[in-house]
């Protein structure tokens, strides 16, 4: 058995189109579990619909998938040769203005919620707008997320809101999918200071490979992805770093038009241009190539196992309580 096959492998963020071919590719890629986005711009009712739909799909594909509510579920998925689906949001918009919805979604199985998606909402501000920081309601939301065991994600969140959220949370928070601005300046990338700050306060960093944020863009390879991970590890150490690919597998241009909009009807927030994942890891099924690239970079076995999934497993346990 290869190291990849033997390891717990957790992708900290996938926003693929939830269909049979993607689920089969997750299994082909040897994923033990993945944080799977089920809400971005949707409100409460539409998000409930998305959750109901993905749970039906998990049941339909129960020979290769299982729902994750606890870290024990992730370990069981590994033992059973399945991929555990962690329900996650990339925006707290679905909480609307009702603090009770936080617990309601936790009861449905949601385990990770990003506070803002690029722009401002009732909680705080995203990374593409002038950042006024965390709102009073936002502080209450974080306290409730801590109480019910939902991890706070700050990947697309602005610097001021992120710093205040890190300080406000009593449990570890994360950047589930980010890259260092030390390798490429971009509003979505995090500075060395921001990366150190979250790590120094017990937080977690999932390194992404989304091409517009990588140093070499669409020319990047899986080895460039590992280089970005090493950059972060050299800043904060290997115990609080994992990976979060941000795979958008199965989607077309219409999806990116929808995902990059902003407040104001038909207002476009950003334009990513051509999206082409790094050579060697263009599909979820190629995830074993990530482990091979780590080996080429001279990583030891313990470091590889941590970053592939053991670190995510530990921090999820700290937040979820099981």
From TrEMBL:
Keywords, alphabetical: Dipeptidase, Hydrolase, Protease
GO terms, molecular function: dipeptidase activity
Keyword presence, Metal-binding: no
UniProt-listed Enzyme Commission number(s): 3.4.13.19
Name by which UniProt lists this protein: Dipeptidase
InterPro entries: Metal_Hydrolase (IPR032466), Pept_M19 (IPR008257)
Lineage: Bacteria, Pseudomonadati, Pseudomonadota, Betaproteobacteria, Neisseriales
Species of the source: Vogesella amnigena
Pfam families referenced in this protein's UniProt entry, alphabetically: Peptidase_M19
Source superkingdom: Bacteria
